[in-house]
Design goal:
The chain has one domain. Helix 1 packs across helix 2. It is 46% helix and 22% strand. Strand 1 and strand 2 form a beta hairpin. The relative contact order is 0.09. The protein has three helices and three strands, in the order E-E-E-H-H-H. The chain is an alpha+beta fold.
Length: 76
């Protein structure tokens, strides 16, 4: 809560320290979304771990197949 996020161009925000007023960082709208939503942040942290590359690939393939086969009635 010590930072205030101000728009700094299209889809860019800069973090400003509430006490000193100095710039302390930058982020995109998506960065702020993932930082403020606990469920999205937890999912991102699981996939961001160094040893979870295989989990990400397997989950992505499973989700892709589910979406691609969702409206196919010729398969069971």
């Amino acid at each position: 809560m010590d930072r205030k996020w101000e728009p700094d161009g299209f889809n860019d925000y800069k973090g400003v320290d509430r006490n000193s007023g100095e710039s302390v960082g930058s982020a995109s709208r998506i960065d702020l979304l993932f930082g403020s939503n606990s469920e999205l942040r937890a999912i991102a942290e699981v996939y961001a771990q160094n040893d979870n590359n295989d989990k990400f690939v397997a989950d992505f393939i499973a989700a892709w197949n589910k979406v691609m086969n969702a409206d196919r009635f010729d398969i069971s």
